[in-house]
Design a protein that fits this description.
- By secondary structure, the protein is of the alpha/beta class.
- Helices cover 42% and strands 14% of the residues.
- Helix 6 packs across helix 7.
- The two termini are 28 Å apart.
């Protein structure tokens, strides 16, 4: 599959990020730092692509990504109405872990926590999703955007990991270890990834 250039942004820091809570498909608001990160990431988008050339703007529909997308649009004088909110790029569901801290889950869900740590690719938490499952929905999204030239995407840490794994043909072991901080913008192009400074 031939893929477009993708400018990949993670949402700004949230209250639950700061508290070390699993978010998944639940939501918490951006912190003041998270709002600043969204503004700064918008400026990086303007460095990465020519805003006067055609591009498509996608975002996860979850609140923290939506808020980040709207801040970026306002910072760059883009039309908010052009954002496409797509469920296929929303964060992986953490099921029973959502809203809880890692420390809590290690103790209260000891068996499930260990099982997931041992097999992050295919283990499914109760009410949740695996990386294998999210990869399938990302393939569906990529099929829809394959004829685009440039796509801007605001998403999440786990979605970023899976998407970069697909785009750059990383082995699963490498993909699972990828990081994407809230203040980093990535450019995916020609099966490679770059940090936008």
């Amino acid at each position: 599959m031939s893929l477009p250039t993708i400018i990949l942004i993670r949402h700004g820091q949230t209250l639950w990020n700061a508290e070390g809570r699993y978010q998944g498909q639940l939501n918490s608001d951006l912190t003041e730092l998270g709002q600043k990160q969204a503004i700064e990431n918008g400026l990086k988008v303007a460095k990465a692509i020519k805003l006067d050339k055609p591009f498509t703007f996608y975002s996860s529909p979850l609140g923290r990504a939506k808020e980040t997308s709207l801040i970026i649009c306002d910072e760059l004088n883009l039309d908010r109405g052009n954002i496409i909110f797509d469920n296929r790029v929303q964060e992986v569901s953490y099921g029973i872990f959502e809203g809880k801290t890692k420390e809590f889950c290690k103790v209260e869900y000891e068996k499930e926590f260990k099982a997931r740590e041992d097999n992050k690719w295919s283990y499914v938490l109760e009410g949740g999703e695996s990386y294998e499952m999210v990869t399938k929905r990302l393939y569906s999204w990529l099929e829809d955007i394959k004829d685009s030239d440039i796509v801007v995407l605001v998403a999440h840490a786990m979605v970023s990991r899976a998407l970069r794994g697909i785009y750059c043909n990383y082995p699963i072991e490498k993909m699972l270890k990828l990081e994407h901080k809230n203040d980093i913008v990535l450019k995916l192009e020609n099966s490679r990834e770059y940090i936008v400074e």
